[in-house]
Design a protein that fits this description.
89 residues; Non-ribosomal Peptide Synthetase Peptidyl Carrier Protein, Chain A; 3 helices; globular
Length: 89
Amino acid sequence: MSAPPDTEQRILRIFREVLNIELASPSTDIIATGLLDSLTLVTLLFEVEQEFAIKLPLEGLDIEGLRSVDRIAAVVAQTVSADGSRPGA
């Protein structure tokens, strides 16, 4: 599922403003590059849930879905679609 155009930008803003991480692109592998540790991951998940007014399905969340901003945006889009709600309420 394709994410709405501003979803990636909103997630990039979380990286930049909350996590103080500058990414080269939305497809940067944040796990392979070592930019995402366990504490940062928890903060990221919390901030994404707050930003998009969603509850991420942690029991079914695969680490592959968290490897990059574009993949996180796809997870957000799927969650919003499954909830039948709109992001950013």
